[in-house]
Amino acid sequence: MRAAHLLTWLALMLGGAALLLYGYGYSRTTVLIEEERTEPAPPGPQLRPAPGRGPGLGGFNLPFLSPPPAPPRIRKVLVAATTPETRVVRDVTVGGLVRIGPGRLKRTYIGEAGPALCPT
Amino acid sequence: MAENTKDSLIRRVARRRGLIQAAFLLLWLDPLAIRMHAVCGPVFHCYSCPLATFACPIGVVANFSALHLFPFIAAGTLVITGAVFGTLVCGWACPFGFLQDLLGKMPVRKVRLPDWLGYGRYVVLVAFVLVIPCLFSESHPLFFCRLCPAGALEGAVPNMARAAAAGGPIPWPSPLKLTILGLVVVAAFVKWRPWCSLFCPLGAFFGLCNRVSMVALRFHGGRCTGCGGCERMCRYGVLPDRRVNNSRCLRCLECTRCPSITLGTIFDRPQADEDGRSGPACRPVRSPGVGLGASVADPQGGPPAQRPAGEHENATAT
Description:
The complex is a heterodimer of chains A (120) and B (318). Chain A has 120 residues and is α+β, with helices and mostly antiparallel strands. Chain A has helices at 2-25, 85-92; strands at residues 28-39, 73-84, 97-101, 104-107. Chain A is 27% helix and 28% strand. In chain A, strands 2-1-4-3 form a 4-stranded mixed sheet. In chain A, a hairpin with a 2-residue loop joins strand 3 and strand 4. The relative contact order of chain A is 0.19. Chain B has helices spanning 2-15, 17-28, 57-66, 72-85, 88-92, 95-104, 120-136, 149-166, 175-190, 194-198, 201-209, 229-233, and strands at residues 36-40, 54-55, 215-219, 261-265. In chain B, the strands form 2 sheets. A two-stranded parallel ribbon of chain B has the order 1-2. In chain B, strands 3-4 form a two-stranded antiparallel sheet. Chain B is globular and about 65 Å long. In chain B, 50% of the residues are buried. The interface between A and B is large, with 38 and 50 residues.
């Protein structure tokens, strides 16, 4: 009876240690992370000097005569990132992950710092 | 002799349980402001608390269930803690249990509820922590964290107060969550640890580990006089002389004031007067005709007489 008790306890300890070791060391989850990417603006229409004219007032290449440069475009893209379980644990404490489909998890915030509060 | 010294030390420590609970509370309240939320703590302490050091294991399990992931870190933490301490963590380290203990000290007559209500803890663990999150995701109104009274007390209320003090918009929790907190607080006046003994999913898991944990209560039938003192001392109606290491025991160690119940480990050599199964043999009032010739020990701690060999073998284990 005592031997069975000791064996059960030993099995629990070994199982728990294995779970912790795997969780901290090896467990990885693929998470879709939304990132903002800045793209350079496409070049605007250029004023070209009239044929046969050199640079100067007649050449239309003065900066104040050029159209203002377009602002850079910010595009949101989803990037699949392999995330350690420690990060997943930290993220769920602030409601930072949602399941959007079978096997697909998405981070709910952009950037490194998550929300300050859990949504519940 | 060494055994007696150890037992008396445990009894002395048990009398100061409140101080030890307060010391653990300081540990959970992030005194060094390190917020290790990637690590699961072994107690029921909401990670939404502005001062939480660790992540709540039950909250992590519920969220992982909603994400359809297996929580290796939380499961490992729970299994190791349960295998070493069992519900000793509940009795001595849990901050929400400490709060209920403090409320329970109010001089109000306490009620005892039927034993079967303790199974509510397993219902909460299976339904609200595992099944509902897995089937309906974390946005369901019955997701465990949306009901948790510890979360309401330690996370929602402080964050509401902080937002109100800063003059910002107040993040109101669900009314159901606040109602459950209110009910638990009121119930704590009339029942010892109502949340722990009726609903706590973490206590349910640790309770299952009680029978196999390294730290264990031991019943010495040879020292029992059948006075029923341990039953009166137990606040949770566990009947320590019959069901030592029962899953409903919170290991507050109040019963170790009786010399027939001691705290030990599974590595301790069994003593001659020890009977792990215990039984009605030492309770002549409840089982007349069995064990009336049992040992009579001095309740003040004098040397107990030995019970006749084999007497407990005939006792009905309950």
